[in-house]
Amino acid sequence: MAAISPQHTFEGDLSVQPMVISSGNMLSCVEPDYKAFIPGNSLRRMSRILKIGLTTALRCLQDSGIETPGAIVTGTGKGSLQDTEKFIKEILDYKETALNPTPFIQSTYNAVNGLIALQQKCTQYNNTFVHRGFSFENALLDSMLLLHEGKENVLAGAFEEITAEHFYIKSRVGQWKSEDISNDTLYQHFSPGTISGEGAAFFVLGPEATANTYAELAGLKMLYKPSQEKLAASLQTFLQSHEEIDMVLTGRNADINYDRYYQVVDQQLSGIPQLPFKHLCGEYDTAGAFALWLGAQLLKTQQLPLQWFPMQHQTPAKLRNILIYNNFFGEQHVFMLLKGI
Amino acid sequence: MAERVFITGMGMITAIGDDVAGNLRSLRSQQSGLGFTSHLDTIYKTILPVAEVKYTTQQLSEMAGVAGIDGYTRTTLLGLIAMREALAQAGITDVQQEPTGFINASTVGGMCDTENVYFDIVDPEKTGDFLKFIDTLDCADCTQRIADTVGITEHIATISTACSSSANALMYGARLIRAGLTRRVICGGTEALTRFTLNGFNSLKNIDKRPCRPFDQQRNGLNLGEGAAYMVLESESLVRENNSKVIAELSGYANTNEAFHPTSPSPEGDGAFAAMRDALAMSGRTIADVQYVNVHGTATLSNDVSEGKALQRLFGTTVPPFSSTKPFTGHTLAAAGAIEAIYSVLAIQNELVFPNLNFTEGMEELYITPETQLKEGYPVHHVISNSFGFGGNNASLMISKYEG
């Protein structure tokens, strides 16, 4: 697996990486040097999220030792915002004439998938989901179906970017906090809205554990606009077939508008340590992919990078089963169960 | 043994008809939907033909039964009209009686409406009614609006793989059924004409100023269209349990990638060939069983060579009748796969092969030519329907007559 995020997640030992702290309520990725992954002449033409997505995918394949995966399945809520914005503007500025097609091509949501397939010569199954807080999770479900149908491995991932323009647009519907905060103090600012983020995370999934395996994805459940009662009941059902949960990775984001859903999980799983992650990556459609990456990392290393979690008072005694719960502005709710190997 | 997947309902709206019956009438009478736009604000209004649904967005909101309610984009309304017909045809009055999923497809979401207010949205000096379109910027908006309006609360997803999007939606739905995760799922796609896509394809020099001529030596690109189409898919056990009327079977499908170029297919049609071959193999049939291929046939220079080569490679000297219905509907992008899947069912139900309009001269690269006349009384048991797109995304569906 691999991740590019607003933290130093792309390479090296997490335990020595400091938390990246920024203000302005908009977290941006720490971008690596792409030249190690993408030839220079391709790189010049590619917009930012294409570079981020493709590089994360390629690093993930390197990490797994698999060059050409059996399928490529991704999720993205917004695709390349930069290209979409650029093409809309150029249509206006150039009065619909003599337009450069590149931003149009790169704005298509499956552009990153096409590039990965092209670069790795993967001619098999290829799909892209574009459904807000279910984008990555449907990609995971599709991947699990593929493994069930007999694929040997699947490259699954998610990518998302935020631009200054889109940050402004979403501020107009109250998605972000009106007070300017620093991400490390997110949970001290319980108020309407949250902080925005972005990132990419990719995973090679296989039907059986190997020596390189990080973790097992033992359960996945999506719930669309559930009532609090339905959320509680679904969590009960979800956990019934599994052993005890050692820790909850929670998508809690200090947004007073949707905190009631996180309270449902508090009530159902009181006494179980919870670890929030949105101060690290911010809120975005596919933040669930960051949570999965983080959870799998924790299970593999059996270590919390404590400098990333200054708010953490309760460290779990053991780390074997992690429940991830996340929701995207109260509409798409997801449970994932991760197990150590 | 995985369950078979049956089609029990269909709904659609395109430039050639407000419903499935209307589409069939126009196909039979060889009535193309191509013309000039009356709704799109573009300098190409009288230059580039499009296949536009003839109603205003206001009229569509009345047809969809949501007149006067805010926030429905043209994309959503087209989808909602098709969805309501599909539900009605499947005899579903309460969608919650049986847990029902919804897999939608979209290439640019509500762009049709947002592109007209985008510069107001990003201008801090401006405020007003347009702010309600902020949520419609993405592809999930139309899916959720449609789901919420008809009461779907179970599994939902939106797929965007360019021009193969709704074929992939049908495939994903069928796979959810075969894996036993759901017994009923509604799949398809919706697409409204936008200045964004018109200029996008035009900047690629992919749009013909004349009505498109698929598989013709003189072809010079595609025409865009708009529309929506959905199919209700049910598992065999649910069909037996409810005694549902089966319209046809989705007996095979395949998704492959060209891995060749961001916007062009491989010249020998490797991906198209593999997609058709695999869909056919999955259905357990052979090339001799296929009576009709509803080709992707966009009439772009590269698609038709690539797809034609793939047909020749798969079928050799026995290529069945094939045609592109894009000269009727235009290229409806995310909706095209589902629209053409319904046309494939109509071919089976009515023993028809639809003509490939505007064809006069065979391509020098191919020894095959499309069907140019309406073939009636022609028994069709199995149809392959192709949808190929940017990013090298190929999808083929095998649709079969229901024979118990």
Automatic annotation (TrEMBL), chain B:
Top-level taxon of the source organism: Bacteria
Molecular function, one GO term: 3-oxoacyl-[acyl-carrier-protein] synthase activity
InterPro entries attached to this UniProt entry: Beta-ketoacyl_synthase, Ketoacyl_synth_C, Ketoacyl_synth_N, PKS_Beta-ketoAc_synthase_dom, Thiolase-like
Entry keyword Protein biosynthesis: no
Protein name as catalogued: Beta-ketoacyl-[acyl-carrier-protein] synthase family protein
Domain Ketosynthase family 3 (KS3) per the UniProt entry, residue ranges: 2-401
This protein's record includes keyword Transferase: yes
Annotated family: Belongs to the thiolase-like superfamily. Beta-ketoacyl-ACP synthases family.
Sorted UniProt keywords: Transferase
CC per GO annotation: cytosol
Organism of this sequence: Chitinophaga oryziterrae
GO BP annotations listed: fatty acid biosynthetic process
